[in-house]
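Moderator note: this is an archived Q&A kept for reference. The question asked for a predicted structure of one protein chain; the sequence and the answer are reproduced below.
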Amino acid sequence: MEAVGVLMMCPMNKYLEQELDKRFRLLRYWTQTKQTDFVAQHAHSIRAVVVNPAAVVTAELIDALPKLEIVSTFSVGLDKIDLAKCREKGIRVTNTPDVLTDDVADLAIGLMLAVLRRICECDRYVRRGAWKNGAFKLASKFSGKRVGIIGLGRIGQAIAQRAEGFDCPISYYSRSKKANTNY
């Protein structure tokens, strides 16, 4: 019986590649100069496609893989996968929801603090020695500022929770009204 083929569309974590290589016939798409020919040559053994946000899974690719059963993306978003074609062909699609929610929310708050408190500008001011010539211009506080969030999904809610800790009133826009929020 032929080994199960896994088409990895782009470079990923070395550990992941090694583990997939142990269990399956790992086919590295990005290393091929004639990618269409490569896919055609291995089409009947490929049952899985593995991607991250750097790669796209098109209807053409899906149609070229008659044994494809699953597309797995190491990301939250599914926007680079032709979901309609996967649904039409009964192909499962998986992602990694909630993996980066806290990291993204922390970074969003950090960026808001950096902009309002002018942290990067102040850092440059100090490094070039300008502090010897006088005080740095005042910055604006984050506490109490209204925070607007577009999309109150997992990440948006995590940002809102953090901003509430700074006594910020929250406003949001989302495709649907969110239950259990005070915003």
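Archived answer notes: The mean pLDDT is 95.
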